[in-house]
Amino acid sequence: MLASPPGRQPGGIRGPNLVAVPAEGLSPLQRYTLDVDGYLLLERALDRRSVQRLRRAIGDQGLPRPDASLERQRFGQGGRMFTWDPAFGDLVDHPWVLAVLAEVIGPHVRLDHAYGIIMAPGTAGLGLHGPAEPFDPGQYWLSRQGELRSGLLAFAWSLTDGRPGQGGFGCIPGSHKACLARPPGAESLVVEVPQPAGSLLVFTEALAHCTLPWRGAEDRLVIMLEYSPGSSAWDPAPAAPADVVASMAERRRRFFQPPSVGGHQPVF
Ligand SMILES: O=C(O)CCC(=O)C(=O)O
User: Fold this and answer.
1) Which of 72, 130, 195, 251 could form a disulfide bond with 208, CB atoms 3.0-4.6 angstroms apart?
2) How many whole angstroms from its chain centre is CA 162?
3) For the chain, what percent of residues have pLDDT higher than 70?
4) Please, what's the b/e burial string for 208-232 (b: 16 or more CB within 10 A of its CB; e: otherwise)?
5) What's the 114 CA to ligand 1 centre distance in angstroms?
6) Pick from 21-25, 55-59, 73-77: least confident
7) Per the structure, how many domains does the chain have?
8) Could you tell me if 79 and 240 are in contact, meaning their C-beta atoms sit under 8 angstroms apart?
């Protein structure tokens, strides 16, 4: 039997080459992992102070206590969180986000929608979803001739220290390339992907993924930013209101362009 490669654990990635994005962009191993698994966990994307700052800004909103309903497990939709603290806007064009976007969507990219996830201990979330098959033009994954492309790419910033066995994000690694519809019982293939505080989990929405029941000691808090190619939209609404976008720096504003081919300005 083949030995497990060093650093590889079921459902997680813990190699020294995988935890940080080099200044020059994704490493070949990071690209390969994202292509093969459909997700990539990058640890220590945010330092402790940044995590605390974002948590405080969320705490200041006096959100209703989360419960078992999906409605109460979501917050900050419609771009409201960008008015809470500029630190939320800093996530939009964080250097690691740009490095991944350069590989998977390219310079004509837009922020399609953003929201937060909050879960109380002992609650369950979304079941398995993600449409690798049949092909979904809004949420595809393609790897052709050395290029990676996704129709909707999610960046999940964890503000809670998710540990193995506590639930949270789960997925079927590699399912974004499946050419068969998901059969009954596919839940048995789900692996948990623990998200340490400050980590950035990148995944394609073509991946079969879900929220495993949350068993952490405190609320689970994640900020989700989802990006589309410049010509495409998943959400019919803009990612943020015009006045909020107008207060941002020029490059960041370009992430909030409406979908188009003609006239779309590259963001990098
Ligand atoms: O709980 C998670 O991390 C996954 C959430 C998710 O898939 C969604 O909000 O669509």
Assistant:
1) 130
2) 15
3) 93
4) bbbbbebebeebbbbbbbbbbbbeb
5) 12
6) 21-25
7) 1
8) yes
Using a 6 Å cutoff on CB, does residue 159 contact ligand 1? no
Helix 95-104 to helix 28-37 angle, to the nearest 10 degrees? 60
Average pLDDT over residues 38-61: 96
Single-letter residue type at 205: E
Which of 117, 190, 192 most suits a substitution to test ligand 1, by most atoms within 8 Å of the C-beta?
117
The overall pTM is greater than 0.85: yes
Q: For 215-229, what is each residue's pLDDT tens digit?
A: 999 999 999 999 999
169 lines ligand 1 (CB under 6 A): yes
Whether 77 is covered by a domain: the verdict is yes
Domain that holds residue 185: 36-59+73-255
Question: 117 CB under 6 A from ligand 1?
Answer: yes
CA of 155 relative to ligand 1 center, distance in Å? 10
Kindly state whether residue 20 falls inside one of the protein's structural domains: no
